[in-house]
Amino acid sequence: MFWWLVVGVLVVATILLAMLLAPMPSALHAAVVGLIDKIQRPLWVVLSVMAWVLFDTTMEMRSYQEHPPQDQALNMVAYHNKKWRAERNFYMVAFAFTLLLVLVRLQSVAHDEAALREENRNLRDLQRINRPSTTAPAAPAKTETKKAQ
């Protein structure tokens, strides 16, 4: 049952990462960043739990790296079965942990990008408001050219 939770975290992290990286309109991208921003605290809790599980699976996998039992063939099959499961669990947790780290970092970058886009939009609007009018008097310019000739 416990490993299905790890698989669930792996699937959710993959979906969120794909949504964050997929090319989409700005409004939809901002909604995805907002969604991930709302689950930031639970994401850190899951990341902390995954770090503990990664440590646990590392220790379990290392316990099978030592000498296998030498007495019976049935014990060897059971030993290799347990070793294979420990390695599978380690790689699964390591991949989920790495995806969560990438997700947290990309969300931070996307959040900063959204803030910079908003600031850029505000500065363009401010520049448009403060721009002086470009209408110059045409008549004095023509008289000045006649005087110069």
3D architecture notes:
- The protein is an all-alpha fold.
- It has one domain.
- The protein contains five helices and no strands.
- Helix 1 (2-21) runs parallel beside helix 4 (73-130).
Major pleated sheet: none
Instruction: Provide the low-confidence segments as ranges.
Output: none
Residue-averaged pLDDT, rounded? Answer: 82
- Report how far the terminal alpha carbons are from each other: 94 Å
Could you tell me the strand content as a percent range? under 5%
DSSP strand count = 0
Series of H and E elements: HHHHH
Fraction of residues in helices? over 70%
Query: How many domains, in number, for the residues?
Result: 1
The number of helices is 5
Q: Whole-number radius of gyration?
A: 30 Å
Overall 3D shape: rod-shaped
Which structural category fits the helices and strands?
mainly alpha
In terms of topology, how is this protein built?
Blueprint lengths: L1 H20 L4 H13 L1 H24 L9 H58 L7 H11 L1
Helix pairs in contact: 1-4, 2-4, 3-4
Summarize the structure.
This protein has helices spanning 2-21, 26-38, 40-63, 73-130, 138-148. With 149 residues, it is mainly alpha-helical.
